[in-house]
Amino acid sequence: MPAVAPLHPGTARFEGGLSEVGPGVHAWLQPNGLLGESNAALIVGDGASLLVDTLWDPGLTRRMLAAMGPLLEEARIETVVNTHSDGDHWWGNQEVPAAEIIATEAAAAVMGDESPTEMKRFGTLAGALRVAGSLPLPYPRRGDVAVFAAYAGEALRPFEFGEVRLVPPTRTFSGELALDVGGREVRLIEVGPAHSSGDLIVWVPDAKAAIAADILFIGVTPIMWAGPLAHWVAALKRLLGLGAERFVPGHGPVCGTDEVRTLIDYWRWLDQAAGQRLDSGSSSPETARQLVLGDEITHHGFADWLAPERALVNVRTIDAHRRGVAKPPGPRELIAAFFRMALLARDHELGRAATGAGGLPVTGAADSGR
Ligand SMILES: [Zn+2]
Fold first, then answer.
1. Residue 364's pLDDT band (boundaries 50, 70, 90)?
2. Distance between CA 290 and CA 37 in Å, rounded?
3. In angstroms, rounded to a whole number, what is the distance separating the alpha carbons of residues 232 and 194?
4. Coil, strand or helix at 304
5. pTM of the model
6. Residues 248, 41: contact at Cβ < 8 Å?
7. Are 75 and 46 in contact (CB under 8 A)?
8. How far is the centre of ligand 1, averaged over its atoms, from the C-alpha of 196 (Å)?
9. Residue 368 burial (CB < 10 Å; 0-12/13-18/19+)?
10. Which of 94, 117, 290, 343 is the most exposed place for a label (fewest CB within 10 A)?
11. Distance of CA 187 to the CA centre of its chain
């Protein structure tokens, strides 16, 4: 099988493609777990199989299904589970026609909120600049707009949204749902709202394997769109309580219980460190910048995770819940969040380059006027 290279620039930090994580449970991994480099999993039973998530565009889904071909010869995919509403986990549904598609009721309720057409438009440089120019953005410098355009353009460049035809779930549930997949028990457990409003995890008891989807990000900073943080920590504890030995994250390599505990540590640190600063009057963007660019993150061992700028979204969500005003971000807030993340990513890279910690300034940094 050809190697599965990262979709974004950079060398692979772990091996992509298919790997068996327990008897008849196969992970499909896309290094390095950055935006849209999402994972999926196949649970193979006697004469039937279940696919967990379908990636961000039909081409990526076809590549995955081709690799799974030999496994599917005697166990057709009868069921697809969409773990949540983010497009990188379900916009390939059209490639598995005739399957029953299951999601939580809460996820299904918002699955139509993003459109492939809008995403495609957002991904083009001209579109990004046009949108940025029409918004009351906090940093109105031309160089900064160029940094944003490069960041947003690169983030979405690998994906072909033009081909996506949205195929929504055909069955929803709340709480828990037990399925029989060719004689095997598979349990769907709703744990949202946490990463998104309707997250679920998948537990395969006979393989001691859990598909955690975007409740787990490994080697890459998690992003909390919905929260509250306490729900996410509770979901991680739920994962630990299953008795699973191997976990398939939504982004990053397969892991064990240690990595789950490390993510709990991250959330506890961020909650406490951000809470202190917010209490003393720091704004949520300023708080996130201090935490990402400061020394604490290194002392706590989270400095090597990719995309540290996502702390901007995480602190924003923590702050909104503390103030009782949490709601899902609308399109304008998403663009503003991308804008801030682009600048923080640039400043973080500049800081690392200056201290010899590695990394190169991102494109456009020289033009930023700083
Ligand atoms: Zn994802």
1. very low
2. 28
3. 5
4. coil
5. 0.91
6. yes
7. yes
8. 10
9. buried
10. 117
11. 22
CA of 355 to the centre of ligand 1 (A): 31
pLDDT bracket for residue 136 (50, 70, 90): low
Gap from CA of 253 to ligand 1 centroid (Å):
13
Rg (CA), the chain: 20
Separation of CA 1 and ligand 1 centre (Å):
24
Alpha-carbon distance values, 93 to 74, 80, 101, 164, 305 (Å)? 21, 8, 8, 9, 30
Identify the residue with better confidence: 44 or 136: 44
Q: How far is the CA of 250 from the centre of ligand 1 (A)?
A: 6
pLDDT of 51 > 50? The answer is yes
Q: What distance in angstroms lies between residue 86's CA and the mean position of ligand 1's atoms? A: 6
Torsion of CA 296, 301, 306, 309, to 10 degrees: -20
Question: 216 C-alpha to center of ligand 1: Å?
Answer: 10
Strands 25-29 and 171-173, by their bridges, are unpaired
Query: How many Å lie between the centroid of ligand 1 and the Cα of residue 61?
Result: 14
CA–CA gap between residue 257 and residue 241 (Å, rounded): 10
What is the per-residue pLDDT across 181-204, written as a single tens digit (0 to 9) for each? 999 999 999 999 999 999 999 999
220 token code pair: 């890459």
DSSP character string of 224-292: -SS--HHHHHHHHHHHHHTT-SEEEEEES--B-HHHHHHHHHHHHHHHHHHHHHHHTT--HHHHHHHHH
Distance 281 CA to ligand 1 centre (A): 32
Tokens of 114: 């993003």
- Ligand 1: distance of its center to the CA of 84 in Å? 8
- Between residues 370 and 132, which one has the greater pLDDT? 132
pLDDT, mean of residues 51-71: 97
In angstroms, the first-to-last Cα distance of the chain is: 46
pLDDT given for residue 144 in this prediction:
81
> How many residues belong to the chain?
370
> In the chain, count of helices (H) and strands (E)?
11, 12
Please state whether 175 falls in left (phi above 0), alpha (psi between -120 and 50) or beta. Answer: left
Strand partners, 104: 173
